Amino acid sequence: MKNLLSMKQITEKEITEILDLTSQFKKDGIQKLSQNIAVSNLFFEPSTRTKTSFEMAERKLGLEVIPFEAGFSSTLKGETLYDTIKTLEAIGLDAVVIRHPEDGYYEQLCDRTSLSIINAGDGSGQHPTQSLLDLFTIREEFGTFQGLNVLIAGDVDHSRVARSNAEALNKLGANVKFLCPPEWAGEFEAISNWDDVVEESDVVMLLRVQHERHDSKATYTSERYHELYGLTIEREAKMKKDAIIMHPAPVNRGVEIADSLIECNRSRIFKQVENGVYIRAAVLYTILNGRL
């Protein structure tokens, strides 16, 4: 595997191998790569969890991390993303981790550079490492994906997490349903009533309302959205005994999920963040070890 761009690209076998390596890293510690490898993290959108967990994973792998700040780069002078990548290739980097607001930005790059590219999120397109850490968190909990009922609720149309997880979970045998306002369903077939699904779901995955990707501000107040489409305390009480709550974060407390549920016993939200370091280390190791 040279790149990780989309969950459409990765096979079930490759997913399993990455999850197994993640399990090994989490049990025994992250194994350093045997040679010096230089990487850089190119984030053209804000990020806390993804960016810092990639940086932590890179350091634990013993990689040379070359700083890159989009706000101080030549992209502000009109340099294209392609020319930025070719510059980093020319100075000797081996790989780049990229988050970019353009859907499918990597399509113009992957065949024109020797660098390995790891997609850390493209617009409303794909977020493969988030999907992999979600898969790992679910597998830790249930040991399998076959027959699990997974509900993804929130701003589905604008969510790269929804697209990536739908692709992967269906591939692995889970039953995926979507819940959102009808106008936010996009390409997905979605329901808008919690009563139809809350009691049967093994995993309830909430999504943030992405105001920045809407043409105009959402028409719902925070209180109204929470009442209609959020995971309220009353809805959580109807969930299966062993069902879990997930969220890729950042979380709008009291909007998509009640504040008190974010750290409740069935929440795995911060466990997802912890698992993100191990998953991203496993992805980097898998790709970069193949370059040695």
From TrEMBL:
Gene3D superfamilies (UniProt xref): Aspartate/ornithine carbamoyltransferase (3.40.50.1370)
SUPFAM superfamilies the record matches: Aspartate/ornithine carbamoyltransferase
InterPro entries: Asp/Orn_carbamoyltranf_P-bd, Asp/Orn_carbamoylTrfase, Asp/Orn_carbamoylTrfase_sf, Asp_carbamoyltransf, Asp_carbamoyltransf_Asp/Orn-bd
Binding site for L-aspartate: K77, R160, R208
Keyword Disulfide bond: no
UniProt keyword annotations, A-Z: Pyrimidine biosynthesis, Transferase
PROSITE patterns with a match to the protein in the record: CARBAMOYLTRANSFERASE
Positions annotated to bind carbamoyl phosphate: R49, T50, R99, H127, Q130, A249, P250
Keyword Phosphoprotein: no
Molecular-function GO term, any one: aspartate carbamoyltransferase activity
Ranges of residues in domain Aspartate/ornithine carbamoyltransferase carbamoyl-P binding: 2-140
Domain Aspartate/ornithine carbamoyltransferase Asp/Orn-binding: 146-286
Enzyme Commission identifier(s): 2.1.3.2
Highest taxon listed in the record's lineage: Bacteria
Catalysed transformations (reactions): carbamoyl phosphate + L-aspartate = N-carbamoyl-L-aspartate + phosphate + H(+)
Pathway: Pyrimidine metabolism; UMP biosynthesis via de novo pathway; (S)-dihydroorotate from bicarbonate: step 2/3
Subunit structure: Heterododecamer (2C3:3R2) of six catalytic PyrB chains organized as two trimers (C3), and six regulatory PyrI chains organized as three dimers (R2).
Recorded family membership: Belongs to the aspartate/ornithine carbamoyltransferase superfamily. ATCase family.
Its biological purpose: Catalyzes the condensation of carbamoyl phosphate and aspartate to form carbamoyl aspartate and inorganic phosphate, the committed step in the de novo pyrimidine nucleotide biosynthesis pathway.
Protein name, per record: Aspartate carbamoyltransferase
Phylogenetic lineage: Bacteria, Bacillati, Bacillota, Bacilli, Bacillales
Gene: pyrB
